[in-house]
Automatic annotation (TrEMBL):
It comes from the Bacteria. Keywords: Lyase, Metal-binding. It comes from Salipaludibacillus keqinensis. This is Hydroxymethylglutaryl-CoA lyase. GO terms for biological process: ketone body biosynthetic process; L-leucine catabolic process. It holds the Pfam family HMGL-like. Belongs to the HMG-CoA lyase family. GO terms for molecular function: hydroxymethylglutaryl-CoA lyase activity; metal ion binding.
């Protein structure tokens, strides 16, 4: 197989993984956890979200977390930024990178952001301009690329149109999200070939959910087509709200195991990473869906 020699894992667990958790993880626990992640060799950690605290209470301490974590040189500490107010809050605590977000399907975008796709662009442009004026990189998330819980099939032409618009407002990289875990390898191949032809493959990351156990199979297709950036959530944190009881994000340590076994470098120390996964599992007091975590616990 023609595979990249090195891949970047972008860890989204502290934000995407915790945002729907019912049990509140204290600021001190978050800081300790993120400090452990920083020591694992990761180069990118999405720390929190600057969405209004009433919408995501689990991340209401975003400022405090950013102020207290021990930052490692060579690690980018990013946050999700929904609007200009969020951007201003983020800049006050030295967020390294902004992440903006929208959906590829109209109904999901309206339910998630309370705006039409067309009306979302001006908000994201304002955030991107604020970030760029402060010399921050701006990353984009596009949700429901592979299927929507409301609209079903999502047009690939619509996905490309959204990507084009995001690149035009200054986003340097787009993470294509399989929000409800419905993607299959054939579909992933089709999507990547199309966006690769239009924009080049190096400007894209893949963000798979493992709701139906397809995340690693889909990852392999991405690797074969030259994708070198993947999002993951430690422990598999982050349940899918549209598939009750199902797992959400692909577990970063399962992704790491596959990559390392295939001889692909990540720069992440698997043993150190598992320590951080065990830590957050203990804090949440529930079993996380990660296979590697289960194996490690079974051997201890």
């Amino acid at each position: 197989m023609n595979l990249p020699k090195r891949v970047t894992l972008k860890e989204v667990g502290p934000r995407d993984g915790l945002q729907n958790e019912k049990k509140f993880v204290t600021t001190e626990q978050k800081v300790e956890w993120i400090n452990q992640l920083s020591e694992s060799g990761l180069s990118h950690i999405e720390v929190s979200s600057f969405v209004h605290p009433k919408w995501i209470p689990a991340l209401s301490d975003a400022e405090q977390v950013f102020q207290q974590i021990h930052r490692h040189s060579g690690v980018t500490y990013s946050a999700l930024i929904p609007n200009i107010k969020g951007a201003e809050r983020a800049l006050q605590v030295g967020v390294d990178e902004f992440a903006v977000f929208m959906s590829a399907s109209e109904t999901h975008n309206r339910k998630n952001i309370n705006k039409s796709i067309e009306d979302t662009y001006s908000v994201l442009k304002e955030v991107a301009n604020e970030g760029k004026s402060a010399r921050k990189n701006v990353r984009g998330y596009v949700s429901t690329v592979f299927g929507c819980p409301y609209d079903g099939h999502v047009s690939l032409e619509e996905v490309k149109k959204i990507c084009d618009k995001l690149f035009s407002i200054g986003v340097y990289e787009i993470s294509l999200g399989d929000t409800i875990g419905v993607a299959n390898p054939q579909q992933v191949e089709e999507v990547i070939k199309e966006v690769k032809k239009e924009f080049g493959v190096d400007r894209f990351a893949l963000h798979f959910h493992d709701t139906r156990g397809m995340a690693l199979a889909n990852t392999l297709v991405g690797l074969q087509l030259g994708v070198k950036i993947f999002d993951g959530s430690i422990g598999g944190l982050g349940g899918c709200p549209y598939a009750k009881g199902a797992s959400g994000n692909v577990a970063s340590e399962d992704l790491l195991f596959m990559l390392h076994e295939m001889g692909i470098e990540t720069g992440v120390d698997a043993k150190s990473f598992l320590k951080a996964a065990t830590f957050i599992e203990d804090v949440l007091q529930k079993t996380l869906p990660s296979h590697q975590l289960k194996i490690a616990e079974g051997m201890s």
